[in-house]
Specification:
single chain; 237 residues; alpha/beta; binds 2-phosphoglycolic acid
Length: 237
């Protein structure tokens, strides 16, 4: 596990995009795992810029997203499919048929897991972290859940994500998410965290025991993971 601390979110975005560019160039059919939320947006902006400048080609890239809210149609403005189209896919030369986000209506967990396996697994997975330590939507629990599954969101996650909805009542209470095993099967992982509200989760994930009550702590067991943090997120290390 490598921990890299940067001065701000913009510098992290450049570093993360450079990792993506170096990895994607390695082979046709490279599989990237993508995340939603506020944290990856500057990275996506860098990827869009590099694609427009002609230094990063997505035409042969395949993507799988971590998660989706249960009950939201892919066309719903708060769905993660909609978010990905708006924040990244509509602005780069990726074939939309090669982009995959779990379906929150059919909740095809097994099918999603099998599709990732059939694609050869994720080569590079991008992660954020919840203030409660979740990765994907794998919330603190008594046991790690390994395959793609349906997860009940914690009150903390619902509070955190209410900012994307008109009111807290509109936030779905469950989600379909890649499991801990799906994430751990990725060949390389980069986790980005910025801001003071992530500092406690980051410290527990990196220095605490590996424990399903702090889902991100499982990453201590991964052989190729880098944490890209700003000074605030790293402040309790
Ligand atoms: P955020 O979400 O980037 O919006 O803070 C991160 C996460 O929940 O994984």
């Amino acid at each position: 596990m490598q921990v890299l601390v940067y001065k701000d979110a913009a510098t992290i975005a450049k570093a993360a995009a450079a990792i993506f560019a170096g990895e994607i160039a390695k082979k046709d059919g490279y599989v990237i795992g993508l995340a939603t939320g506020s944290t990856p947006v500057p990275t996506y902006q860098e990827l869009i810029k590099m694609n427009k400048e002609g230094v990063l080609d997505f035409s042969k890239v395949i993507s799988y997203n971590l998660d989706e809210y249960v009950g939201l149609e892919p066309t719903h403005p708060c769905s993660y499919r909609y978010f990905m189209n708006e924040q990244l896919f509509d602005h780069i030369n990726i074939d939309k048929n090669n982009t995959h986000v779990p379906n929150g209506i059919t909740c095809n967990a097994e099918e999603y897991e099998e599709a990732i396996k059939a694609a050869g697994g994720v080569d590079l997975q991008l992660l954020g972290i919840g203030s409660d330590g979740h990765i994907g939507f794998n919330e603190p629990a008594e046991d790690f859940v390994y395959p793609t599954n349906i997860v009940k969101l914690t009150d903390q996650t619902i509070d955190d994500n209410a900012r994307f909805f008109n009111s807290r009542d509109e936030v779905p209470t469950s989600a379909i998410s890649m499991g801990i095993g799906t994430i751990m099967s990725a060949k390389r992982i980069i986790l980005i965290a910025t801001g003071k509200n992530k500092a406690k989760a980051i410290a527990a994930a990196i220095k605490g025991p590996v424990n399903p009550a702090m889902p991100a702590s499982i990453l201590q067991m991964h052989q190729n993971v880098q944490f890209l943090l700003d000074e605030d997120a790293a402040s309790e290390l």
